[in-house]
Amino acid sequence: MKSEKLSFKFKFAFGIGQAGEGCFGQGLGFFLLFYYSQILGMSPGLAGSAIGIAVMIDAASDVFAGSISDHWQSKNGRRHPFMYASFVPLSLCFFLLFFPLVNSEWALFIWLAVFTNVARTMMSLYHVPHIALGAEITEDVADRTALVAYRQFFANIGGLF
Questions:
Q1: Is residue 3 part of a domain?
Q2: CA 125, 85, 153: angle at the middle one, nearest 5?
Q3: What angle do CA 56, 59, 62 make, to 5 degrees?
Q4: Are 125 and 89 in contact (CB under 8 A)?
Q5: Residue 43 placed within a domain
Q6: Which residues form a coiled coil (predicted)?
Q7: Model confidence band, residue 57 (pLDDT cutoffs 50, 70, 90)
Q8: Which residues on adjacent β-strands are paired with residue 138?
Q9: Does residue 1 fall inside a structural domain?
Q10: Structural domain range at position 46
Q11: What pLDDT is recorded for position 3?
């Protein structure tokens, strides 16, 4: 834990890590249901059910990600290994969600359910440790507040894309 004031460069670097989550969250929250129902022609009820299942499982995966990263011990720290490990599978799942390799309605349902669940779980393995890391970096309340502000700023910027 740092005792000196955090530099602008440090806060910026920490905050920019949230831009991808903003993009991911907005892509799934605003566009995924529309894409599967209107573009791919899947029944909106099935698409919504697949996404709903993923959201319910995501609630548990957030708790799991927090618990496992709280108790993890490695030379790279408690948080970083999960953040590094989630990047490639999350990126691949996000890509595959918008380029499904199947075309029947039930195959699309399974595809959407599986890849949305995996993507949300990978996002939990990045997002939850990233949030926890901010509280562990410094004891200074002003710096902690600034880290949250930078993180939220970049999440909003990422959400625009």
A1: no
A2: 55
A3: 145
A4: no
A5: yes
A6: none
A7: very high
A8: 2
A9: no
A10: 9-159
A11: 67
